[in-house]
Amino acid sequence: MCGISGWVDYERDLGEASARQVLADMTATMACRGPDDEGTYVDTHAALGHRRLAVIDVPGGHQPMTVAQDAGPDTTALVYSGETYNFRELRERLALEGHRFRTNSDTEVVLHAHREWGRRDPRDAVRELNGMFAYALWDTATDELVLVRDRLGIKPLYYYPTSDGVLFGSEPKAILANPLAERVVDADGLRRALGFVADPHHAVFRGLREVPPGHIVRVSRAGISEQRYWALTDTGHTDDVPTTVRHVRVLLEDIAQRQLIADVPLCTLLSGGLDSSALTALAARSAAGRVRSFAVDFTGYTENFTADDLRGTPDAPYVHEVAQFVGTEHSDITLSTGQLMDADVRSATLHARDLPSGMGDMDTSLYLLFRSVREQSTVALSGESADEVFGGYRDFHDADTVAADTFPWLAGRMMRRDPSDPGLWDAALIEELDLPGYIEAQYRTALAQVPELTGPPADDRHERRMRQICYLYLTRFLPLLLDRKDRMSMAVGLEVRVPFCDHRLVEYVFGTPWAHKTFDGREKSLLRAATADLLPDSVVQRVKSPYPSTQDARYERELRRRVAALLDTRGPVTPLLDANAVRERLAAPVGTASGMAARMRFEQVLTMNAWLGDYGVTVNV
Prior knowledge:
The protein is α/β, with parallel strands linked by helices and 621 residues long. The protein has 25 helices and 19 strands.
């Protein structure tokens, strides 16, 4: 999978010893993403760093990789993170064009693809790739840097413009290791941190940006520009429901086969829901041997489970039924409240993210799950994004949420919040930030990007609205989940692949009418119909259940104790809080005050406090 970092400065010789040391410091922050190897490339005005997690061509895939231009001194250098699943087909095509390869890695294929198809416009090369990737190319002939991110934003890539060039890295920590990067958060940064809406144009720290999904960023002496190479479009879908179901199945089988390619141990993440179960079944059919599967659980969770508005059933019974039905080599990773509240684990999840998330045990449990999985496997397949692609969340099917003129996850039952309610934050601060105005502006910007419907459904008001909901989830919510998955997995050197994010599947299903996606009167109709023959009927009929969160009251009590202690010690976050509001929430009985929403407020306060202190952040509002 790997981690990349780099620095371009058109007014400085980056071959100097001091600059090389800074590059080494930047690259060292990516060691968790690449525990197997490291390398650097330095030109006069460009310095590239790489940490490698060896997955394909373990002995031959050392980076950075370079290739010389035809019969000349000029060189193209590449640092790459991710996987290109169609690299074998591309390699054959490139070989027919005269390209010669020294390795069996997908990275070298990407490098030659840019030489063959991307000389005039790098977007032409990127469009040939099927995979998840983030990479940087430096061309000595033009002194140009090209930063590339995959279509859905599965792999992260950040950049920080400077007066004379740019800094970049797989994670903010790589950029922050360079003295040129300021650790300042302004009003826009706090809005981004508290708004729970993906916005790649602002990555919380002042001046820090993401390469947007489906874009490249070009850096030259003339400046920095962003160019889109992919976007969701209306395909004018004409297939009937049976044809659509068959095509989804064909795509899923091809995707599963492609994403099983690895030269290291591979497994699946199994929750007992439709998405992960279907993926596990497809993997089991395509794999050469018996597939391993892993699931997360909490001590006493199944035995003492209480149904609520979000989760009607515990995962474990369904997980075990699927594992037996499909025939996987299964392991449960069972976590205690003590593990979830462990100070070192909470610190590790914060430093994996580089940003305050407020997800609490849903972050720590994922980190602990991945840490355990990594002891036996290097690659895992995840069912992430199936809900966004196929319309699985309850918000898609709740009339009030659909009708709400805002992002559906902010109006739905799972995360419902009033952005004007300061909650535990200082009321004057929230008024200054104007979160309602920020969210409204983000919402209108996103709606303006939704492709227009064509064909007969174009006049259907409900179809148009559901197209908007699908687009909002894919472009402004899914990136948040993909980022979480990437950070928690790469913090322990585990590569997690997300087959449902294959752009061919996303494009095809996005283009289908909402009536197709709900043809049986339920959520995820197309996925259910396409994979029902692979699964136990209990799983096929199971209602969507989100990623689990502990129900142990001791967890919330300990959370409250730490928040109370924070008020007494006046940590870095306290100037941003309404102390009376915090004490009022602390006085409420455990499990009340809006349940999960209240607990997440406490989590957000603790995480923000740790982040401000650990990262030495200056708040400038």
